[in-house]
Write a structure and sequence with these properties.
By secondary structure, the chain is mostly beta strands. The chain contains four helices and 27 strands. The chain has a five-stranded mixed β-sheet. A four-stranded antiparallel β-sheet has the order 5-6-7-14. The relative contact order is 0.15. InterPro entries: DUF3179 (IPR021516).
Length: 352
């Protein structure tokens, strides 16, 4: 608790005293970096001051009672197993190292930029775990890998310092949604429990009104793109180095579908503001066959159907139809606060 309180106090003092008084920690930012050193800031708690989890404990959805229906969670699916990682845990730990059926990954989450991304923990052929360096760039988490001590930019998806400089991380599909939607769609999932080995106020958001106060940034951001409200959550899409931001659309309880072309790839973006999910997929199955998708309403476990009768779940998997067992090709995405997406990808377009 003290480390988080220190982070908030330090950050607020930095804001109050002005950007001219901000300083970096020269000990932590020695060597070559792929990001400007003068834009790297020490968040306060220090390296591992925010403790990443290594062996998370899980419980059934039916026995999980510490979450409210509108709490945000991250969901991963590997094979037939689905696991849920609540923001209320990640707000205090930022990284959860995990493994499902031999697939080794880390759920990385930055509360200040609102970004949750699943990273493959096998880097350059070697397994590692990730920890919290305590450093920030554009308010965003800089994890480090424990195998080489290299530093990584979460939103840039690559190593920005150390012996793995320039290595790009492989990501896994991750869905962000509300606890209500998660337990309705995946009632058999496993949920991270509060039995973390640490004493934290998991029912309390540690950053005050940060999520809703568009005027509050705890650290400098460059550029500060004013095209959208700073804390609006958008889906950022990256295809062949082209980036685009998609906004949640008001459509009642219905699912909204957008067909688009990004980076010369045909994609589908599907979202429901009321159900609190947004995701993107290539319009192509793993076997190379092209598909044309339409939304399915009133069936949360099935959200799309193609012209051949294949029905798809939130992870783009065909769960019924002639192509059952196949899935749509992955698109690199992340849900982020607009200010963060605009800062990391300043040439981004915004979908109509």
């Amino acid at each position: 608790m003290r480390t988080i309180a220190y982070l908030i106090f330090t950050s607020l003092m930095l804001v109050l005293t002005g950007c001219d008084n901000l300083s970096t920690n020269s000990t932590n930012i020695s060597g070559e970096w792929l990001i400007p050193k003068d834009q790297i800031f020490d968040g306060g708690p220090g390296k591992d001051g925010i403790p990443a989890l290594i062996t998370p404990h899980f419980a059934a959805v039916s026995s999980t009672s510490y979450l409210n229906n509108d709490d945000l969670v991250l969901i991963i699916k590997v094979g037939d197993e689905v696991r849920i990682y609540p923001h209320s845990i990640l707000d205090w730990h930022e990284i959860i190292n995990d493994e499902i059926s031999g697939t080794k990954f880390a759920i990385t989450y930055c509360p200040l930029t609102g970004t949750g991304i699943a990273w493959n923990r096998v880097i350059n052929g070697k397994e590692t775990t990730f920890g919290v360096s305590g450093l920030l760039y554009n308010s965003n988490l800089i994890p480090y890998d424990r195998a080489t001590n290299s530093n990584w930019s979460q939103m840039k998806l690559l190593s920005v310092n150390g012996s793995l400089l320039g290595f790009v991380v492989n990501t896994l599909p991750l869905i962000e949604t509300s606890w209500l939607t998660a337990k309705q769609v995946f009632p058999s999932a496993k949920v991270v429990t509060t039995s973390t080995g640490y004493s934290r106020s998991y029912g309390t958001y540690p950053y005050g009104d940060y999520k809703t106060n568009h005027g509050l940034l705890l650290f400098p951001v460059s550029p500060d793109d004013s095209r959208l409200p700073r804390k609006e959550r958008v889906l950022g899409v990256i295809v062949n180095n082209e980036t685009r931001a998609y906004r949640f659309k008001e459509n009642g309880l219905n699912i909204d579908l957008i067909s688009d072309v990004v980076g010369e790839k045909s994609i589908t973006v599907i979202n429901s503001k009321s159900r609190n999910f947004i995701a993107a997929y290539q319009n192509e199955l793993e076997d190379g066959s092209a598909v044309s998708l339409s939304p399915l309403q009133n069936e949360l476990s099935i959200i799309m159907i193609d012209k051949n009768g294949n029905k798809y779940n939130l992870f783009g998997e065909v769960i019924d139809g002639p192509k059952q067992g196949m899935k749509l090709k992955q698109v690199t995405t992340m849900v982020a606060y607009w200010f963060a997406w605009g800062a990391f990808y300043p040439n981004t377009s915004i979908a109509n």
